[in-house]
């Protein structure tokens, strides 16, 4: 019965193959012994690993106990003794976290070295129920209520070798019965290091109490986790898809999301997209709270272009135009591949037949149009925004290309000589605030002739009297 | 503070409009009074309804209390006294279910009558936490853990008027503080009828116990429900879409699902599609257990064509070819619009120039081809499956159209006169077992000339000596 159920769990739920070794993490307790002898009986090739956390006086004896079993059975055995207490102090982790860290690090190292298909550990159904209840009490949502899975890739340990839990569907009593039937004597009280006071109290007081409300409580919680796990898998798959659809661009330290598309998604997906972005930028972050996510969503709904908040873990959330940006504190805001000056203080001269380089392969080029036909003058009304036509007799070549000064004003074409502050122009044209200092101006003897790409000036405009035209053009090359 | 938060809950979470009346269900307890005076203060037009469940001696006094408040304030007031005990007995419901049933029935009746936009009730955050924990202890999955929503259509009460819960985000203490600030004295211990022993114990013992594990337990559970509700909404939307994509055909008492498409979906979606199909066929069913769904899924994966199981609540699950059918016990299996006899015992004669009617507008027609050209004979090899060409000199007209008898055999064309049982032919041709008795045969003097649509017989085949041909053809009309 035990073996038949284990065979199904191993092959179907854990996806294990018969002919590739499995690394089994063995503490010496009943769970890991049942796992070990069960998988052996099913004919899986095994490699045994034991981690001595050096936290209790009997830990050396336990390591010897596991080694003896391995030797007797002729199994490959590898072990490591690590001072978890010291590691915890150095890494500023709790003992529990530190033990987990060193344990899995060693198990996956060994799995890689011995070309194992998976790392198998002895978590069982009672562990599952306790885990789910702990997550519930701590306030986890679906990601916590789904409990532990039979099989999962843990990218922090290995990108390809999964962690499997073939005993996840077995209750403690089933496991102990199997171990007894083999006449094995497991190490007593080899409680793994998760078995803290909190978990013990939950096991010995809370669960029995909850069972007075529903005698089938454990079965019911286990099944809930199982169903929620399937639902969570489905949503994970859909969220990844949704994330890709919301994504504009991503890099190591920033992610750009298409804001208006994002705002049309269901709230649950929005939460998951934001969460996923945070995880990508801060993969080591273990808990992303509801509050951060909710604050992020509220911000996305209410923000104006240029607004910015602290999100979580040294990440900002910024709205620029129709883009929602999640970025590390140190990451620059995106410049959207615009034709900007490389730095605010940049100065250069631009003469006929020459060019000035801007960011992202953009450049400004100047040429002269000598023959002014009626047809050409007709075109003056339809000059594209990436060109400026200036009256050669009004402009002094070479012109200057530079950024704007605080409070600088100019006379926009078509406003009858009235002047406007550049600030107002930038606001009207929705130029993100952080990019304004980099915005290039074409200046002739201190007078702005063209706010590049946005607006030429009244003072240099073409008239019927114009003899020659200076044409300045924005050009994008792939350089 | 109270009103500001209520205004947001009413307009945003509950989607209430300012200018259409709201029907408020008022028991006389603090919750419903807070709801009533709060909505009034926000300027919503209100209609008050009270249900006297006649379960306790003080219930008349409570009805009077609410009526007095309504009169004093000049609100429209409607009440009903119903003997819930009697109703429960007649309908075989628990007292709690019966009270709920009569209460909501009356509230929605009144809402329709007074053209209200919604029925508002006083469930608050503590109720939410208790509800979620009760569902958890009973073993609900997402549908239970999501708790009660701020706004939901309850099709069993009304197809258009939603039930709203504007106080869902308020804790009991906030509500009592507001009621005190108005110098209102609510009815004491107007516990609504859900407040059974079970719920009381949960409130007074279990929740305080859980708070020793996490002092913020209630907030944490409330928020979990809120997040899960969004996730569940999203999945509901996706499941409906998934259901439509899996759907082949549906009717009042059966639903056909495209089996191979269904089997490719994520498990979570499969579960939901099956659940949705059950809900459509048995809308009154309140609890659909995990076990039924899992049994259904396992069956879908393992079943052969013709297999059938009892699913739940007088529903069967049947596989026929590539179709998974959920049906009531009494519903016939689908006949896929095939050209079948109307009943197994059907007999008819078919003569030249006449026809015999079959199901779904199909008919068999016989005609005679007199001029046999070489070209025509060449076509004999390519006769479509909906026609049979018989040698007029071998067949005796009129032929008989009838169903098959048990064990009947015939000589299929092209098998050199060897005979085959009809049973084997049907199996090879994947004719669903339940349709075989209805399958039409064309029979000449006791000999099968054509198993309609499947195979003609060797005994009547066209040869070079054939003078005239009887052509029998399956024709579909829209009659």
TrEMBL record, chains A, B:
One of its GO terms (biological process) is tRNA modification. Residues 399-472 form the Lysidine-tRNA(Ile) synthetase C-terminal domain. One of its GO terms (cellular component) is cytoplasm. Its main location: cytoplasm. Keywords: ATP-binding, Cytoplasm, Ligase, Nucleotide-binding, tRNA processing. GO terms for molecular function: ATP binding; tRNA(Ile)-lysidine synthase activity. SUPFAM superfamilies: Adenine nucleotide alpha hydrolases-like, MesJ substrate recognition domain-like, PheT/TilS domain. SMART domains: TilS_C (SM00977). It is found in: Cytoplasm. It catalyses: cytidine(34) in tRNA(Ile2) + L-lysine + ATP = lysidine(34) in tRNA(Ile2) + AMP + diphosphate + H(+). Signal peptide: none annotated. InterPro entries: Lysidine-tRNA-synth_C, Rossmann-like_a/b/a_fold, TilS/TtcA_N, tRNA_Ile_lys_synt, tRNA_Ile_lys_synt_N. NCBIfam families: lysidine_TilS_C, lysidine_TilS_N. Ligates lysine onto the cytidine present at position 34 of the AUA codon-specific tRNA(Ile) that contains the anticodon CAU, in an ATP-dependent manner. Cytidine is converted to lysidine, thus changing the amino acid specificity of the tRNA from methionine to isoleucine. The N-terminal region contains the highly conserved SGGXDS motif, predicted to be a P-loop motif involved in ATP binding. Belongs to the tRNA(Ile)-lysidine synthase family. This is tRNA(Ile)-lysidine synthase. It comes from Candidatus Brevifilum fermentans.
């Amino acid at each position: 019965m035990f073996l038949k159920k284990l065979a199904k769990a191993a092959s179907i739920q854990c996806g294990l193959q018969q002919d590739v070794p499995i690394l089994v993490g063995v503490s010496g307790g009943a769970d890991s012994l049942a796992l070990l002898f069960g998988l052996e009986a099913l004919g899986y090739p095994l490699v045994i690993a034991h981690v001595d956390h050096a936290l209790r006086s009997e830990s050396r004896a336990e390591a010897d106990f596991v080694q003896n079993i391995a030797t007797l059975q002729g199994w490959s055995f590898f072990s490591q003794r690590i001072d978890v207490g010291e590691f915890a102090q150095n890494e500023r982790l709790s003992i529990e976290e530190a033990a987990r860290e060193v344990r899995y690090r060693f198990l996956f190292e060994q799995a890689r070295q011995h070309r194992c298909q998976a790392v198998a550990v002895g978590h069982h159904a009672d562990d599952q129920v306790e885990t789910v209840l702990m997550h519930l009490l701590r306030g986890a949502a679906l990601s916590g209520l789904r409990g532990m899975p039979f099989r999962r890739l843990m990218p922090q340990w290995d990108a390809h070798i999964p962690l499997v839990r073939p005993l996840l569907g077995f209750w403690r009593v089933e496991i102990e019965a199997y171990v007894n039937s083999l006449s094995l004597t497991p190490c007593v009280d080899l409680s793994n290091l998760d078995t803290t006071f909190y978990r013990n109290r939950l096991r010995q007081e809370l669960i029995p109490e909850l069972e007075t409300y529903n005698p089938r409580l454990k079965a019911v919680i286990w099944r809930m986790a199982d169903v929620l796990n399937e639902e969570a898998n489905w949503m994970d798959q859909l969220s990844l898809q949704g994330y890709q659809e919301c994504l504009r661009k991503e890099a190591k330290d920033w992610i750009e999301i298409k804001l208006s598309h994002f705002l049309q998604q269901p709230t649950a997906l929005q939460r998951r997209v934001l969460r996923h972005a945070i995880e990508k930028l801060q993969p080591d972050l273990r808990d992303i709270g509801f509050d951060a996510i909710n604050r992020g969503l509220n911000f996305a709904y209410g923000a104006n272009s240029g607004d910015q908040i602290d999100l979580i873990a040294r990440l900002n959330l910024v709205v620029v135009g129709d883009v929602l940006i999640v970025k590390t504190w140190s990451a620059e805001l995106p410049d959207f591949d615009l034709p900007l000056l490389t730095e605010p203080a940049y100065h250069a001269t631009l003469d006929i037949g020459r060019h000035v380089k801007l960011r992202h392969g953009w450049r400004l080029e100047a040429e002269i149009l000598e023959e002014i036909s009626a047809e050409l003058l007709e075109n003056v009304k339809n000059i594209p925004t990436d060109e400026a036509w200036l009256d050669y007799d009004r402009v002094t070549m070479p012109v200057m290309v530079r950024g704007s000064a605080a409070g600088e004003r100019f006379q926009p074409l078509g406003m009858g000589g009235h002047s406007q502050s550049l600030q107002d122009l930038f606001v009207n044209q929705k130029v993100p605030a952080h990019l304004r200092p980099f915005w290039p101006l074409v200046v002739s003897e201190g007078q702005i002739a063209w706010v590049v790409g946005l607006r030429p000036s009244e003072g240099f405009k073409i008239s019927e009297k114009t003899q020659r035209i200076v044409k300045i053009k924005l050009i994008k090359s792939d350089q």
